[in-house]
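Ops channel
N.P.: pipeline sanity check, posting one input/output pair.
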């Protein structure tokens, strides 16, 4: 097969791309595989693979330079993508292999809709993640046309293009929201290269909570601030670490906010010391997007303490006791307080075991879906 990452450079989306490229290569089996990618991005992916003792199928590589400064002028970006897509479509036709595009942009969507009719024998797979939020995202006036433009191409049905959605909950939300307008889609769980961790954990005192990333509105910035304000002065034995950014100032030594970008090594070290991940996502968030932090928690084998939203509701329903799903901020506060005062050792061990089983189940489900797509037996999920 041919796999093309047309957008990402360096460490951008390195975790999800390390996962999906590895799973695509495994599902496709032995063969003449070509990866078209930016050089440093492939280096980051290889680092993840080697650090987690992951062995991928063989492939050759061809390097490109995405996101050139000239791309700010959209017509030039479209010309570049027409050239890149046309070249790879011809090569896929010649080889008789599937062609997979990752990190799809609005411009690439348009180009593939225009070029695909001339390549009826090429199995084209488009991975959609992140960009789907443009279907409903409210933007300033200057960006509103871009969002409508993406929807125009996304909803245009084309039997030549197989849309792959990252997370089953997104596919279901799209069907609920758009019905017959929706083109055929299939979905997989957020692909991951799992770490080898110890499934058996002992109690720690104080109990350590953590989360990763820049805490904006979607990730629960306001909810975290209110939680910290309520915990202030309470004589509870806990530690909370924000492995990223949060606009909050405190003298409480139990709360650590880095307010900088951490290296992969720092995140790994701090995450390994945590007991739980806090995911206070807003109720209306992550309908068309999956959270990498949730899968960071799974990767480190950590139960989550989350506010109810579409994403979290799905994964608690799918896998069971993977942590604590809170109806509101009051329950979130009470859960943090209760766990800090009395750490439930046996339930914690059970939760970790459930997460480890869930990781295997997700890998197996992903492999089945990807093998079907690559064998051109794509069918719209019901």
């Amino acid at each position: 097969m041919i796999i093309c990452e047309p957008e990402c450079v360096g460490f951008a989306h390195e975790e999800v791309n390390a996962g999906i490229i590895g799973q695509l290569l495994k599902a496709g089996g032995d063969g003449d595989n070509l990866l078209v990618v930016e050089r440093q991005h492939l280096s980051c992916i290889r680092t993840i693979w080697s650090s987690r003792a992951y062995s991928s199928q063989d492939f050759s590589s061809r390097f490109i330079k995405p996101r050139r400064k000239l791309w700010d002028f959209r017509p030039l970006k479209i010309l570049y993508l027409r050239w890149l897509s046309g070249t790879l479509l011809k090569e896929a036709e010649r080889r008789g292999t599937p062609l997979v595009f990752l990190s799809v942009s609005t411009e690439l969507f348009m180009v593939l809709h225009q070029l695909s009719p001339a390549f009826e024998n090429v199995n084209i797979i488009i991975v959609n993640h992140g960009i789907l939020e443009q279907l409903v995202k409210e933007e300033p006036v200057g960006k509103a046309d871009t969002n409508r433009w993406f929807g125009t191409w996304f909803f245009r049905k084309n039997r030549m293009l197989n849309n792959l959605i990252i997370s089953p909950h997104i596919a279901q939300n799209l069907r609920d929201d758009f019905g017959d307008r929706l083109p055929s889609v299939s979905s997989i769980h957020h692909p991951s290269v799992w770490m080898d961790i110890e499934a058996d954990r002992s109690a720690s005192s104080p109990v350590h909570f953590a989360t990763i990333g820049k805490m904006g509105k979607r990730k629960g910035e306001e909810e975290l601030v209110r939680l910290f304000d309520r915990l202030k002065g309470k004589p509870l034995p806990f530690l909370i670490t924000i492995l990223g950014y949060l606009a909050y100032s405190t003298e409480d030594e139990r709360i650590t906010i880095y307010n900088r970008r951490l290296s992969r090594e720092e995140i790994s070290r701090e995450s390994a010391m945590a007991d739980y991940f806090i995911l206070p996502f807003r109720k209306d968030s992550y309908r068309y997007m999956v959270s990498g932090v949730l899968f960071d928690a799974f990767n480190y084998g950590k139960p989550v303490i989350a506010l109810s939203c579409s994403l979290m509701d799905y994964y608690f329903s799918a896998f069971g006791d993977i942590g604590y799903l809170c109806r509101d901020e009051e329950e979130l506060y009470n859960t943090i307080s209760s766990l800090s005062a009395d750490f439930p050792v046996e339930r914690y061990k059970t939760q970790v075991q459930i997460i480890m089983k869930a990781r295997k189940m997700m890998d197996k489900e992903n492999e089945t879906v990807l093998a079907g797509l690559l064998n051109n037996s794509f069918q719209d999920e019901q």
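N.P.: looks fine end to end. Residues 207-360 form a domain with the Rossmann fold fold (CATH 3.40.50.2000).
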